[in-house]
Design brief:
By secondary structure, the protein is of the alpha/beta class. The chain has one domain (4-184): Isochorismatase-like (Rossmann fold). It has helices at 22-25, 33-47, 100-106, 119-132, 159-170, 180-184, and strands at 8-13, 51-56, 84-88, 111-117, 136-145, 176-178. Strands 3-2-1-4-5-6 form a six-stranded parallel beta sheet, with helices on both faces. The two termini are 18 Å apart. The model has no long low-confidence stretch (mean pLDDT 95).
Amino acid sequence: MGNWQDATALVIVDVQMGFNDTGYWGDRNNPNCEGNIGDLLEAWRKQSWPIVFVKHNSTDDRSPLNRNHPGNAFKPVMDGRPDLLVEKSTFSAFFGSPDLHTWLQEEQITSIAICGIQTNMCCESTARMAADLGYDVLFIIDATHTFDITPSDGQGIRARDVSRTTALQLDGEFARVVHTKELIG
């Protein structure tokens, strides 16, 4: 993947207060997610590498991520100003505004490092689309988290297994799955 540091944007997806609502979302994995995101933000800022914040504005009035809900706000770890703020109401950050792909091209950025919430939803969707658009993608698995899934058949899937499945599906095909310490030492 070459020298990833020189042209890699850190894309932090949907790290919003509404994801703290366990009554709405259920149990999550990876309690270290936000700490790892904070470490990544600090490392990127020290090097003056590009940072993108992505915010999900749910169109569902009942969602804690709805624009009119206090849960739409970023979590405290998302301090400071990004180089770009993308707002979206879909899964992929590439369907937000302003247009992420256009900005990356204008900035001559050829690779992205993805972290945030949820591992298997918006983070994975963004990674897949980035790969399809030709970017080198680092998926920072320990700087993401997701929630248990309880399908209609009642045979639930634990969040840690959902996360592992995402990592297995992405690695080598759509992204290189990495851990925070691999990137920032």
